[in-house]
DNA sequence: GTCTATATAAGGATAGAC
DNA sequence: GTCTATCCTTATATAGAC
């Protein structure tokens, strides 16, 4: 449980600074690889002072994950039954790719957790995430059966979208080593590539 | 440098047991998260005995990575200029998917390294891996220009293939939480899905 | 609220008996 | 070659002064 005791502005500011620093450190080194020294230094505080705001290293990590869950589910949640199916799914791809560009640390934080078997947020994966995926897979299946998109397996489609978009955040080091982009212009190429791939895949039979 | 002094059969057997155990532990917990105690226990040896065979924790990890590099590059290396382009690329997808099914620990070991910025094998990524990717991207570009496959960006195609196939190993926990497969039958569905997606993507214009 | 100093534990590595 | 015992560093967390 997060403490609900009221906090002053300076408290909130310090907590936010610690969480920001912790996102940096945890996403780069993983939970075990991160140290409180690194987090404290990145936050510009002493180690005991960090522990004045959070009960433990585990507590910082947990609060980070908890705070990001909604953000993480939001693009899939936005998939709308009333929109144009192909357009909705292409928008989803685009939104996920933007998140890889704009929130790569968050992506790597989640990726590291899942990679290790989700020891600290298995409940999120088997709970809210699975529930939402099941719901949206049913929606996609409905589009398939109505002939509004091509015949694809909804679950593997969702996995493919996750994989191809998150790849640019999670494997950023590798992508940059190979493409050697200035700034982030490779995200534009990725966008074009993925739009082409998924629009071809999803286009219902005979519509081209 | 690896010692080149000759080793007895029992030495080779113990080294192999340690590496096998270390692959288990490193792939699940990452370099920092893994402990020599865990590796020793999994190998059925005492901790000092493990260090009799390997100079350090780092040495075990390094030898694991080094020993897997060739295996990891092999499928892409097999992409053959003389074969049918679409068939060659679909075979590559299939081979990579099989590796995710049959060597998930190896996939997660590499994924964990890249996720953390490849601190211990950046040289592999910027060296042999990049060289091979550049070479095969040129090959694919040739196929595009000859009109033998559809117009796609070779690099982003390779990234997409990596992402969509390795996802089933690296995010195994998440995939299983959502699909709840008996055994590994979801790999068959993934195979069908990915074959469909990539054959549609790669088919040259007007060939269907 | 913030710091210095420190308690305590975990983990990598070594010494030395067998 | 293999083990027990131990060294020593690192890292989480706490005590207590200010």
How is this structure best described in words?
The structure is a homodimer of 208-residue chains. Chain A has 208 residues and is mainly α. The first copy, chain A, folds into two domains: 54 residues, Orthogonal Bundle (Arc Repressor Mutant, subunit A); 138 residues, Tetracycline Repressor, domain 2 (Orthogonal Bundle). Helices cover 75% and strands 0% of the residues of chain A. The model of chain A has no long low-confidence stretch (mean pLDDT 96). At the A-B interface, helix 1, helix 6, helix 7, helix 8 and helix 9 of A face helix 1, helix 6, helix 7, helix 8 and helix 9 of B. The first copy, chain A, binds a DNA duplex (18 and 18 nucleotides) through helix 1 and helix 3.
Summarize the structure.
With 208 residues, chain A is mainly alpha-helical. The first copy, chain A, has 10 helices and no strands.
Keywords:
homodimer; 208 residues; mainly alpha; Arc Repressor Mutant, subunit A; Tetracycline Repressor, domain 2; 10 helices; 75% helix; DNA-binding
